[in-house]
Amino acid sequence: MNKSNKYVRKLTAGLKTLGPGLVTGASDDDPSGIATYSQVGAQFGFTALWTALVTFPLMAAIQEMCARIGLVTTKGLTSTLRNHYPKWILWVMILFSFPAIILNIGADIAGMGAAANLIVPAYRHLLSV
């Protein structure tokens, strides 16, 4: 029992060390993103690769800021906005974020259905349900 308790404490300490960086680092590895990157790569080849030089520093800066905010405040973005800014800013952020989140979830499900369609010969939209 002592060995397993020690293992759990060690695992918990390791996960705490990773912190929000693990979540923000994996935030763009969703099915819709991978499907989009695959389609763009198949259609345009390396011609659009130059955009990575511009977008990567910007994405890294955003993820770094989000990780630091989460690490320092131990709260999410909405709690931080609620505690430090006027209420209307929080509602505007929620108003703009909600449709984007819902559409992203739908695109993830559709991307998984399209990937499953490559393996199982069935109607793609049926596989998304």
Summarize the topology.
Elements: H1 2-18, H2 20-25, H3 31-44, H4 51-73, H5 77-84, H6 87-119, H7 124-128
Helix pairs in contact: 3-6
How would you summarize this macromolecular structure in one to three sentences?
By secondary structure, this protein is mostly helical.
Description:
This protein is mainly α and 129 residues long. It has helices spanning 2-18, 20-25, 31-44, 51-73, 77-84, 87-119, 124-128. Helix 3 (31-44) crosses helix 6 (87-119). The mean pLDDT is 82.
Considering the chains and any ligands shown, give keywords for the structure:
extended; 0% strand; 7 helices; mainly alpha; single chain; 129 residues
Described by the principal axes of the CA atoms, the overall outline is extended
> How do the SSEs run, as a string of H and E?
HHHHHHH
Please tell me how large the radius of gyration is. 20 Å
The description of the largest β-sheet is:
none
> What level of helicity do the residues show?
over 70%
> Runs with pLDDT <50, length 5+?
none
The pLDDT mean sits at 82
Total of helices: 7
Tell me the fraction of residues in β-strands, as a range: under 5%
End-to-end Cα distance: 44 Å
Structure summary, number of beta strands = 0
* Helix/strand/pairing category: mainly alpha
